[in-house]
Amino acid sequence: MASILVLNGPNLGRLGSREPEIYGSMNYEQLASELLAFAEKHGHKADVRQTDSESELIGWLHEAVDAKRPVIINPAAFTHYSYALADAASLVTKAGLKLIEVHISNPHAREEFRHKSVISAVATGVIAGFGTDSYKLAIQAI
Ligand code: DQA
Prior knowledge:
Elements: E1 3-8, H1 20-23, H2 28-41, E2 45-50, H3 54-67, E3 71-74, H4 83-94, E4 99-103, E5 125-128, H5 133-141
Helix pairs in contact: 3-4
The protein binds 1,3,4-trihydroxy-5-OXO-cyclohexanecarboxylic acid (DQA).
């Protein structure tokens, strides 16, 4: 049984109303409760969190290292430029813990600035483009 931290970055709390043609119609609360149930079905515990703050996200990655918990993270826009978040993500994988980067959309099929991820190089793996099922695929990977 893994106790998984499922971390979500900025603007993901607005799922459902934010660009539903890209991110779908499920709101954040529905997503969180679906993921809890899905993790439980697979014998895991999930702790699903969202923040708009880079600092809080980094603190949660430090917490994952200290508590030895695997991480699923949708870093949202921080994906594309936050070296501070990349350094914190690297601490997780260097500690021998899985860190899976997920995206609801396929950033490579979108604007050019979304094509670069500063997180992918330090992640265990990346799952993108499967809508909110990207998170479920990541739970299965763990
Ligand atoms: C996203 C893709 C990012 O480019 C964007 O900034 C997000 C969401 C996704 O899940 O598809 O906020 O991470």
